[in-house]
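hi!! sorry for the late reply, been swamped w classes. u asked for the two structures so here they r. pasted raw, havent cleaned anything up. first the sequence of the first protein and right below it the tokens
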Amino acid sequence: MWVARVDEGYVFGDLAPSSVETLKGIPMLIESEDPRVRGRLLPDTCDDEADAAHWREHAVPELERLFLSRAQLVRRDLAGLRKMSKSEHQFLLLPDAHVNAWLAALNAARLALFELNDLKAADMEPENFGALQGKQQEALMRIHLLAEIQSVLLGDFEVESCGPFGDFVPE
């Protein structure tokens, strides 16, 4: 995978089929009804039962709407995936106006993958990778891919600027 900066946002290129599959799974992960995912994304925040009920009544529905809108935006952006000219890999434009939604969606998807695959904090350490089951190893690789994209969007890496997207030719 490579990344370029265009006037309109970020272009992620040379996305392998497994990377594309991971990205396409983001909306489903953050919309999951699995109690583990919902518990992680919408945790109980209050010790007092009355306060907790107030939270569930007033805050949780708004958070659910935010997750739904992020999932819809991610789906729309993913509809813009295009094949690279010289391979089966693809590229994707993430517009600047969508970066905050993508950051939130990527983070939520990482949390969902973590929960759905029964991962523990210690499993995130590289030396523990070999002890994980196959599905857990796959989930961990997907979590790391999403984290790399988050890091780019957060500005942790210097990315080459290439002018307007219309002039950009991914090879």
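now the second protein. again sequence first, tokens right under
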Amino acid sequence: MLNNVKIVTSCCFLLYLYTMKTTKEILIGGQALRNLGSDRHTNDVDYLINDITTKEAFITSEKVDFLNANGNKFFAEIFKIEEGNTEATPQSLFELKAYALVQHCQNMNWAKADACEYDMKFLVRNFGCSAKIVRKYVSAGELSEIQKVVNSVRK
């Protein structure tokens, strides 16, 4: 019983340390899109953070996922733009979704790639977003795929 108490206490302490070592969380992903009026439903919550104690780009749990600016130059650039905000702007959400689209296509995760495309179209249609930052982090072929999504809305 005493060992269980130590484990729970240790876990709580680690969670406390984790929250202390990160800077402000910036809401991104599906929940941020819902707040902007998107009709695509998602249960998970995603945040952009800057955890200086790790270079891990993705820190995941069952219900909350974190993209770590300290572990990825693209995320760092978006974090710098959004620092001080509690929720990412539509342009930054577009950049993140475009980057995710490329990653999901590379991993052949077509369902998630389709969801990214849907979200990107929502952001283009409603906020006039286009690829600005992501173009520095993807190949010319990948950028052309992103541009095809943008062009499909702007016709």
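hope this helps!! also noticed smth abt the second:
Residues 4-14 have pLDDT under 50 and may be disordered.
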